[in-house]
Design brief:
120 residues; elongated; 3 helical TM bundles of succinate and fumarate reductases
Length: 120
């Protein structure tokens, strides 16, 4: 394909690629999360034990990457579906702005929820 065709396509090549990258991040991150937490079963399933695990830098990085990748993947997928239903011109800009605001606010809220363990 020619470059101008790819860049002017409704979805965009880079967002298409990032959708695939975040899918891989989600699959790998969820696998690591589930294997470490459930297969290795590091201690009993109590609040204190889970809080100690979440406080480690490893789980903080995994949880924040899952949060960011999940939000991007979901909101970009929503954007692509809505673009398929005819959002064009200025409607596309408004849609992109609304989804960015939703994404940033959701990431901030998720980080705020993890903050007590991230700063411990």
């Amino acid at each position: 394909m020619r470059r101008d065709v790819i860049e002017t396509h409704a979805g965009g090549m880079w967002l298409w690629l990032l959708q695939r990258v975040t899918a891989v991040v989600l699959v790998v991150g969820l696998a690591v999360h589930l294997i470490v937490l459930h297969a290795f079963n590091l201690g009993d399933l109590s609040y204190d034990n889970v809080a100690a695990r979440v406080a480690s830098w490893f789980f903080a990085a995994v949880d924040l990457s899952l949060l960011g990748a999940g939000l991007f993947h979901a909101l970009n997928g929503t954007r692509m579906v809505l673009l398929d239903y005819g959002f064009t011109g200025s409607n596309r800009r408004v849609l992109a702005a609304v989804l960015w605001v939703v994404g940033v606010v959701s990431f901030a809220y998720g980080t705020w929820a993890l903050w007590p363990w991230l700063t411990a």
